Structures are given as structure tokens and as C-alpha cells.
Amino acid sequence: MLGLPLEAIAIALLTALAAGFVRGLAGFGLSVVIVPVLALTMAPKEAVLVGNISLFLIGLTDIGRIRRDADRSAIPITLLALACMPIGLWALVTLSADWARLLIAMVSLGAFVLVVVPLGKVAMPRNPAMGLSGFFTGFFGGFAGMPGPGMAPFYLRGRLEPRAARASMMAIFLVLTPLSSLLFILLGVGGMREVLLALLLFPAVLVGDLFGHAAFGRVSARQWQVSVALVLGGAAAGALYKLLEG
């Protein structure tokens, strides 16, 4: 099916369910969970495209939530990310498949580290922090289809309420993912097969997302951060272990 063995499709569906849950709970993390797993059975560039399309499709279901809850910081971060995304795309199409797989796994691990490492009294003014967030959001979005690691430290460690932080990240994804997907296709990276695979995975992503939204309403801000960090850390460690084992 779609050039993949049935076992790989089954694993992808289960991963999509978990990825949707993480995204619904945290506002980011779908690609961080799903891309490393897909990249073990298909070209990393194609796995990134599937992740981007999946992010866009699920983002369409949250337009009302985004309009109601998102913070205005999403606007400058999005504009900077759009400007920096071509750098990540260049890195993705230039590196070999083996290096891309390894770096995608490392990006997943980095998302975990950036969220949980204590910074003590270290703080950065808001505008420079937004600038760095925009740059890394664009780079990671273009290179690995994972804008989340670029914006997660700003939003998860900032002073915004979890509801506003989550909606702000969703807003950025909704703008970035269709544009990056279009760029991928124009560059000859993937095509109809990746679109069909994303559509096949979408019901699982949607169900997981609904459960994630339900869980979000029942956890405290601290529990929200801890649960997201644990899920991201587990996904990253699993992807890295499989890469090193292979």
C-alpha cells in the first residue's frame, strides 16, 4: 500500500494516533513524534512532507481556537520563520539520507532537552527571544518539518498561559505548513503518494488530537509541561535508539 509494507502502515497509524494526542495536548509535537518513525521506512525528505501535510490538515480544525486564544507574538515569529525556512530546506535537500535521518532524530531529542533543562535565573529579553525563536522555527520547519523545537522554549518557558501558548504555536503551524509543503513539491521532494499517506493517517491524527484536547482541559500548567516533555523525550530516544541499532 502506497509503496510501504502493511506493517509499516500499521506502525504509522499507531504513531499518528500518539502524535495527534501530543499535538492536541501541547499545541506542537506532531511532527516530532511522527517524522522520525516514518523516516525509518521512507526517505527523510518524504517523511517531512507527510508530517507537514498532516500538521496543516489538523490545523484546519482549530481555526476558531486560534482566533480566540493565540497571542500576537505569533505574528513576528511567523514572519521570521517564513524568511528562514529556505535555509532549512536547503540543508534538507543537500544532506545525504543517513545524515538527515540522524539529524531529524537529534532535533526530536533537542525538543525534549530545550523544554526540560533548568535555566535558573538566565533570561533573555522578549524581542531577542522572539527573533531566535523565529529563526529556529523556520530552520527546523524547513529541514525536518518540525517547527516546534524552535518555538517550544519561547512558549513553554514564557509567561503566557498554557491556553494562549498552545494556540499561538498552532497559529504558526497553520501558516508555515502549507507553504513549506508547496515548496517541497515544487523542489521535487515527494508528491501524490505523500499526500495520500497523510490523508490515510489523518483519521488517526484527528482521534488522537481530540483526546489531547480533552486531556489539556484537565491538567495544570506544570503537568502540561511535564507530560509534553516526557512524551517528546520518549519519542526522540526511541527514534535515536533505532537509528543507532541499525
From TrEMBL:
It is found in: Cell membrane. InterPro entries: TM_pro_TauE-like (IPR002781), TSUP (IPR052017). It is a multi-pass membrane protein. It holds the Pfam family TauE. The chain crosses the membrane at residues 73-93, 99-117, 129-147, 167-189, 196-216, 222-244. GO terms for cellular component: plasma membrane. Keywords: Cell membrane, Membrane, Transmembrane, Transmembrane helix, Transport. Belongs to the 4-toluene sulfonate uptake permease (TSUP) (TC 2.A.102) family. This is Probable membrane transporter protein. The lineage of its organism: Bacteria, Pseudomonadati, Pseudomonadota, Alphaproteobacteria, Sphingomonadales.
